[in-house]
Write a structure and sequence with these properties.
Layout: E1 2-9, E2 13-19, E3 25-32, E4 44-45, H1 47-63, E5 70-78, E6 84-87, E7 97-98, H2 106-114, H3 118-125, H4 134-144, H5 148-153, E8 157-160, H6 162-170, E9 178-179, H7 180-183, E10 189-190, E11 195-196, H8 198-204, E12 214-215, E13 218-223, H9 226-229, E14 234-240, H10 241-248, E15 257-261, E16 265-272, E17 283-289, E18 295-303, H11 307-317, H12 326-331, E19 340-342, E20 360-362, H13 370-396, E21 403-406, H14 413-423, E22 427-430, H15 435-448, H16 454-460, E23 463-467, H17 473-491
Parallel strand pairs: 1-5, 5-14, 9-12, 15-21, 21-22
Antiparallel strand pairs: 1-2, 2-3, 4-7, 6-8, 10-11, 13-14, 15-16, 16-18, 17-18, 19-20, 22-23
Length: about 500
């Protein structure tokens, strides 16, 4: 029997999944890797550890397939914006990867904003000028790692987001490439020409020689080195994790939207074949690009801390021993006791885009317990998403009728009910919630004939549960207003010298 192998390289773990023709997961392997915090606001990963964990889980998943099983293609999806710089000759990274959550270049963004560059950058890239994206991270590496800029000018270095880093290693260093969805997250890619932009390269002082060629999201861009899996597999699908999840949710028609609950939360709405400029500080991004260059665009809203907030409860406050405990703990109290957690540990994403905001816990009394804080953490995830939802409705000029959800935290029934209550529309959880990996598999399978067309994929999507809103409209408005008061407290806090 034929299968598709999907590699899902996330912010906290590397996963591999094998899908059958019905879009069902038949094998899964996963390994977490280290999160490195050298200074407050800095977040790094070891690129070699990312590669070794990703290779290990791929081999593990494949080893459990029945004899005679055949992998038709490999699809790849990845944490976006995280920046790696490595030597072309040796494949050695020059430094740790700078993760999308990292805020070390916030002041550089402030300087560019003061210089009047923000509007031009948004016009060309569809993005806000923010340290979240790759350009200032890459510039920092070139300017800070000894000898890096000289090596780059001589063409001896390669830059990539995590997809490029994995493709390089999967192909034994023979392919340096990215796809349009990942390229559109760098602040260096022009949404309208679908090319690296010379004016932006000059602005960020990036040598063109370090950049990967941009390839379609669905189409064969290389083959794995035979030594890795015993056979050479076509790498036929590549997309950033949120675009892949949108594809996996079969959001193929303009106006369809999904929200992924992972380390962060990411809401995307298909806008069709045209890039839509947001009036509400959302992002315009490439959704995916087909083999003939046909491009789908999306509007996106980003929440930096979702599942990572629950990890903080576990690892930072240590009020739970595992993430799975949070639902029961939060459900043990009827409400938060007017406690609000604003998890701006890495600044605030859309629609605030405040890189200087910091995490804030407000409304504490002597009666506050760890259960109230746990419930406030879940509500914080849903309330941040509600902010995105409102901004997206305003940009779309029409009410959104429902929201499809995926990602690990969407299995939390209490969180999903909170989400429906704060949105005022049904939240729909599909039968297959691993839609990020599934989207990568679909892109690879379409390129190799494993699936015929988008219609076949749409027919495979099915709802597992609908969460209907139960909160009265007046109560919803009051809670959202109270939440915004808490957000303003977080935005008013600054770190001292």
């Amino acid at each position: 029997m034929d299968y598709i192998l999907a590699l899902d390289q996330g912010t906290t773990s590397s996963r591999a999944m094998v899908f059958d023709q019905g879009g069902r997961v038949v094998e899964l392997a996963q390994r977490e890797f280290r999160q490195i915090f050298p200074r407050p606001g800095w977040v790094e990963h070891d690129p070699v550890e990312i590669w070794t964990t990703q290779l290990a889980v791929a081999r593990e998943a494949l080893s459990r397939l029945p004899a005679g099983a055949r992998i038709a293609a490999l699809g790849l999806t990845n944490q976006r914006e995280t920046t790696v710089l490595w030597e072309r000759r040796s494949g050695r990274p020059l430094a740790n990867a700078i993760v999308w959550q990292d805020r070390r270049t916030a002041e550089r963004c402030d300087h560019l904003r003061a210089g009047g560059w923000a509007d031009l950058i948004q016009e060309k890239t569809g993005l806000q000028l923010d340290a979240y994206f790759s350009a200032t991270k890459l510039q920092w590496l070139l300017d800070t790692v000894p000898g890096a800029r000289d090596l780059a000018e001589r063409g001896e270095l390669a830059f990539g987001t995590i997809d490029s880093w994995l493709i390089w290693n999967l192909t034994g260093g023979s392919v340096h490439a990215t796809d349009a969805s990942n390229a559109s997250r760098t602040l260096l890619f022009n949404l309208h020409t679908l090319q690296w932009d010379e004016e932006l390269l000059t602005l960020f002082d990036i040598p063109r020689s370090v950049l990967p060629p941009v390839r379609p999201s669905s189409g064969i861009l290389g083959h794995t080195h035979k030594a890795l899996f015993g056979v050479s597999l076509p790498i036929a699908g590549v997309a950033g994790d949120q675009q892949a999840a949108t594809f996996g949710q079969a959001c193929f028609a303009p106006g369809m939207a999904k929200n992924t609950y992972g380390t962060g939360c990411f809401m995307l709405m298909n806008t069709g074949t045209a890039a839509v400029t947001s009036r509400n500080r959302l992002l315009s991004t490439v959704g995916w690009q087909g083999p003939q260059g046909q491009t789908a665009y999306c509007l996106e809203g980003s929440v930096f801390m979702a599942g990572a907030t629950i990890q903080w409860l576990r690892d930072g406050l240590q009020i739970i021993k595992s993430a799975a405990e949070v639902e029961a703990l939060a459900a043990s109290v009827p409400d938060t006791g007017d406690v609000y957690l604003v998890p701006a540990f890495a600044g605030l994403g859309a629609p605030d885009w405040d890189g200087h905001a910091r995490g804030t816990l407000v409304g504490l009394t002597r009666g506050t317990t760890r259960a109230h804080i746990a419930r406030a953490a879940l509500e914080a995830i849903a309330l941040q998403v509600a902010d995105l939802f409102g901004a997206m409705e305003r940009d779309a000029g029409m009410p959104l009728r429902e929201m499809r959800v995926d990602g690990g935290a969407c299995r939390n029934n209490l969180l999903m009910q909170m989400q429906a209550d704060f949105l005022g529309v049904p939240v729909v959880r599909p039968q297959i919630t691993e839609t990020t990996a599934l989207g990568a598999a679909y892109l690879a399978g379409l390129a190799t004939g494993f699936w015929r067309d988008a219609g076949e994929i749409t027919a495979q999507w099915a709802a597992q549960r609908r969460f209907e809103p139960q909160m009265p409209a007046a109560a919803r408005r009051a809670r959202l207003a109270r939440w915004r008061q808490a957000v303003e407290r977080a935005r008013g806090w600054t770190i001292g010298p």
